[in-house]
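Hi all, long-time lurker, first post. I run a small reading group and we've been trying to get comfortable going from sequence to structure in the token notation. Rather than ask abstract questions, I figured I'd post a concrete chain and ask someone more experienced to write out its structure so we can walk through it together at our next meeting. Sequence below, copied exactly:
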Amino acid sequence: MKEKRKSKSGRNPKLDPAVYRYTVRFNEEEHNRFLAMFGKSGSLCT
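-- Answer (accepted) --
Happy to help. Here is the structure in token form:
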């Protein structure tokens, strides 16, 4: 009897998976305040 080959499916695991994940919800006022603070921080992320 022939052996069935198992195919490896799914994503390859990341070498450095995210450990900390955050979800926040802002109303319009809080969102604008956040954008202002983020702009002042000088962060290079866009």
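A couple of things your group might point at:
The two ends are 58 Å apart (CA to CA).
The CA atoms of residues 15 and 21 lie 17 Å apart.
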